[in-house]
Amino acid sequence: MDNVNAFLEIKRLIADIRSYQGEWRRSEDFDRFIKRLNKLSRDMKLPTFEFEPFHFSSTGKTINDNGFVSLTNHLNILEEALNFKKENNKEVKKESKYPKQRVFVVHGRDNNAVLEVESILNRADLEPVVLHRGTNNGLTLIEKFEKYSNVDYAIVILTPDDIGALYIDGPLTSLDLKFRARQNVLFELGFFFGRLGRANVCCLIKNTVEKPSDIDGIVYIPYQNSIEEVELKLLKELKEANLNISL
Predict the structure, then answer these.
(1) For the chain, what is the radius of gyration of the CA atoms?
(2) Which end of the chain is less enclosed by CB atoms within 10 A, N or C?
């Protein structure tokens, strides 16, 4: 989860606690609630909260007044820390001397994969460029592609969108069918290979997809289900290509 979403979820959790009416009962759901708040806080390097034994009733099933006061005091501190971090981040952005470097994301039909790559790039303080998000301005598709392809790096996501095989003279059932990326993805891969050079192109390839032929020297990073599995490897490639990333 990126910092923006974590920030918003913590704010929502704080509001839910403050608006809660009724007896605070200790339960598995309640424990998960506190664990979630603490996990988000740790991810954002903010203080966490733990109940002490004297925060519970004699039966241990409910939170007493001391416990609730301690929790709300913690929420006040947490909210101040969030506001401080937010203001501090605004100042850092104002002082930034250099524009974000742009990374083109080539993709097929797997929208989740696109969102994952965009999230990784945003966390690294890079600007993802996804063609269908840009305005058309009356341009043809190829003109729009040329307009938005002025980037520093390209990430090509190869997902199993099509099926193909080497043609042989015989029954279709004898063909060795394999999953392949869409033709537009392969076209754009070749385009960026020529425009940016192979050192500035990286392919994220799902494990079931056949590799394109006659394209050597490009980095292939295989993954199983989610691109977040290989986030660190991708960031290392971006760093190696001299992109100014924030790890």
Answers:
(1) 25
(2) C
- Give the list of residues 6+ apart from residue 28 with CB closer than 8 angstroms, or none: none
Give every strand in the sheet of 153-158, ordered side by side: 127-129, 102-106, 153-158, 201-206, 219-223
- Its pTM stands at 0.57
In whole angstroms, give the CA distance from residue 108 to residue 102. 20
- The answer to whether 199 touches 241, Cβ cutoff 8 Å, is yes
Rounded Cα distance, 147 and 167, in Å = 37
Residue 129 to residue 118: CA distance in whole angstroms: 8
Spans in the chain with pLDDT lower than 50 = 92
